[in-house]
Amino acid sequence: MSATGSDPSRRPVDLPDLSREAVPGEKVALAPGQLQLRPTRRGKAPSHLADLTLAERRAAVVEMGLPAFRANQLSKHYFDHATTDPDDLTDIPKDLRATLVERFFPPLLELVSMQAADHGATQKMLWRLFDGSLVESVLMRYTGRVTLCISSEAGCGMNCPFCATGQMGLTRNLSAAEILEQVRIANAKLAAGEVPAQEGENPVTRVSNIVFMGMGEPLANYRPVATVCKRLNAPSPEGFGMSARSITVSTVGLAPAVRKLIKEEIPVTLAVSLHAPDDALRDELVPINTRFDVDEILSAAHEYFQATGRRVSIEYALIRDINDQAHRAQLLADRLIAKGGTGWVHVNPIPLNPVKGSKWTASDPFVERRFVETLRAAGIRATIRDTRGSDIDGACGQLAAEVLESDAHRADREARVARVEAIATQDS
Ligand code: SAH
Description:
- This protein is an alpha/beta fold and 428 residues long.
- Helices cover 32% and strands 16% of the residues.
- The protein has helices spanning 54-63, 69-79, 94-104, 176-191, 222-233, 255-263, 279-285, 294-308, 326-340, 365-377, 407-426, and strands at 110-117, 122-128, 134-142, 145-149, 153-156, 169-173, 209-212, 247-251, 269-273, 312-318, 345-351, 381-382.
- α1 crosses α2 and α8 packs across α9 (326-340).
- The longest helix has 20 residues, at 407-426.
- S-adenosyl-L-homocysteine (SAH) is lined by residues 158, 162-163, 212-213, 217, 250-252, 273, 315, 317, 350, 352-353, 355, 396-397.
- S-adenosyl-L-homocysteine (SAH) binds at residues 158, 162-163, 212-213, 217, 250-252, 273, 315, 317, 350, 352-353, 355, 396-397.
């Protein structure tokens, strides 16, 4: 295999579009390698203030026969004070509040359950959407900052075999407001002191970092996700006023959508879930690789760095004896360097979190260290990513509201595991 070109020994591309087999509204389980490009549910969430630009909100208010400044007031309540409660809208006449709340703040997320770990510093929330779809978000408090991991889709069609969400299939894309509500509610929790700081620490009252690492493939739900990023970044009263560096979009590698982010100047930091430096293994671990291979996605990622100056993160879940060999670390370094030297990326190896129904486990700590040291010796920045919430199934790859798997699919999946293991070891 050449360091940068594609591997001629790859399996032929065979990716039936499973959405044709799926019954609308039914859950599906994807067979190995199958991608699901269309959701099974098509319903649209009610329109919400956060879906609209400030100009559109002002126009909508005027259409209701009210002065445009009411839109600014509502926007400040939403983005600055994290509230949609009519009682909090004290600068708006009492008789208008109910009408405005009904029009602009329809309830989009209903809390089903909340689980805490790390003495309350990690909290996983399960939400029911208007049509019964379920999604999760995970809030993580660190010293002086709070990261919120948000979902962009109910389920996911990308079918990575080591990820619990990937086993669900794609139920529905979320609207921009359904995604932004996860952030607004987390801000309300923080402001209410529901995520207590450790002794001697100042409480953090707002989410400081957003990662699109919950359920879903954000770039497969491009338009709403791009809107969300703009809204997260725009200053109040247009949006939350967060910096582009504190918003991370993580993708399996939809290269054309990465290029669209560049062209539209969407203010985010990019993370690419690579997990293997060679196409033979990546075809199995991240099935979309058969459409956009390692070379293609690294090209798009490097273009992203050149256009934005923001260093790209490479996500790499270390799976014991599958993708954690020193020769794969070396190949990864070689391919990154061939693309643009050492300065443009940062590799984030993460110990695999266990997923129900999978026998794959995290690499040995010794192997993990060797992987990182091999990258560093080649001049590539690498840090093991902190993993949180695995005891509440709230860690990376563990979010799955409902999983349905038929016996046939289980047999297919087990066959794939055997194939992956053969590929993983053949060239060591
Ligand atoms: N679809 C997007 C974002 C969601 S997943 C993506 O794939 O990037 C967020 C991160 O968790 C990704 O890097 C994903 O590959 C990783 N991940 C998935 N399953 C995992 C697991 N079992 N253990 C550790 N990381 C996992």
